[in-house]
Amino acid sequence: MEKKQLLYEGRAKQVYATNDPELLIAAYKDSRGTAAVPGRGAVNNRVSVCLMQMLEREGVPTHFVEQLSDRETVIRRAHMVPLKIVVRNVAAGSLCPRIGLPEGTRLHAAILEYYYRSASLGDPMINRYHAFELELCTPEELAVIDRYAFRINDILKPFLRGLGVDLIDFKLEFGRLSDGTIVLADEITPDTCRLWDAETGEKLDRDRFRRDPGGAKDVSEAILHRMTGGNFM
Ligand code: 5GP
């Protein structure tokens, strides 16, 4: 496969065209807008690959094809649905001031929210009627997205629990393949999740992992250690 021109550059990764019109290459960067952390790109690439493979095994289709190198992965070209899907298990972040729940309140059932991906509007929260009005997706597509989002939560929550980590909330993005199939796209890494220590409630930013299963110095490495038996570097 030949890597062609740069199509897109975001805070966390670059996306390149290839000689195959259906395939792209995602290249993870060490930086995320601010300071670079050496090795971060490789770890995030591996975490996203491992989690996508786990979700595929559990029946959630994703854009993942194969890992190409330490920081590059081949993905299927998808036409992105311009929505950020946020799933919440515990009140935190923007939810607390919006509906007046104290941070840390465990929700009776997972809450799903839609945000319209629009830089000029600042990614406003919208509801399904707004999404249909703007023709961001069809009702059928949104039904599939909802189902996958809850399913992903049901898979990730117990997996992370096994690491002593509470999955507070996370963000997903979906795309359409050329045949219209909805797949999970973008990335799932500790950069797109809010994670707290399950016992102490300590907020685990991505550079900290106190519980240290096998010498992991951050949450990403702990996830990798668990998924690969330590053979990830
Ligand atoms: P909140 O709405 O509380 O700020 O965010 C909810 C969850 O979605 C958090 O886990 C946050 O990390 C994730 N999230 C929402 N928008 C984005 C985004 O644009 N980029 C990333 N990486 N995560 C996001």
How would you portray this structure in words?
The protein has 233 residues and is an alpha+beta fold. It has 5 helices and 12 strands. Strands 6, 7, 8, 9, 10, 11 and 12 form a 7-stranded antiparallel sheet that branches. The radius of gyration is 18 Å and the shape is globular. The chain binds guanosine-5'-monophosphate. Guanosine-5'-monophosphate binds next to strand 7, strand 10 and strand 12. Guanosine-5'-monophosphate (5GP) binds next to strand 7, strand 10 and strand 12.
Give a nutshell description of this structure.
This protein has 233 residues and is α+β, with helices and mostly antiparallel strands. The protein has helices spanning 40-57, 95-99, 128-133, 139-161, 219-228, and strands at residues 3-9, 13-18, 23-28, 64-67, 72-76, 79-80, 83-90, 106-116, 125-126, 165-176, 182-185, 193-197.
